[in-house]
Design a protein that fits this description.
By secondary structure, the chain is mainly alpha-helical. The protein is elongated and about 70 Å long. The two termini are about 30 Å apart.
Length: about 100
């Protein structure tokens, strides 16, 4: 396993860990659950009146939006991990030159 593969594994595992920790530490409030339910109902209503072609278009737009948001979040998370690794290396290097 090279450094790139190791970083990929580390990031994937840490992202999963943080996702679960976030869900535990910040459960949705009743208001957030209610808003999500209202949004789901509204989405279902809109979706139900669309024909098959327009449903596919809506799904395409939703998927593209989710993908873009997910990629951006992953980018920032990876950047943070890389910054942390580089900072750790720098501190170790500074300590070893003392």
């Amino acid at each position: 396993m090279d450094e790139k593969d190791f970083m990929e594994l580390l990031i994937t595992e840490r992202m999963g860990m943080h996702c679960e920790k976030f869900k535990e530490d910040y459960p949705p409030t009743p208001e957030q659950l209610e808003a999500a339910e209202k949004a789901n109902i509204a989405h279902d209503k809109v979706f139900s009146i669309l024909d098959a072609e327009h449903r596919k278009l809506l799904e395409f737009c939703e998927d593209a939006g989710f993908e873009s948001s997910s990629r951006e979040n992953e980018y920032y998370y990876r950047a943070g991990i890389k910054d942390g690794v580089n900072l750790d290396r720098l501190v170790k290097q500074m300590k070893s030159t003392d």
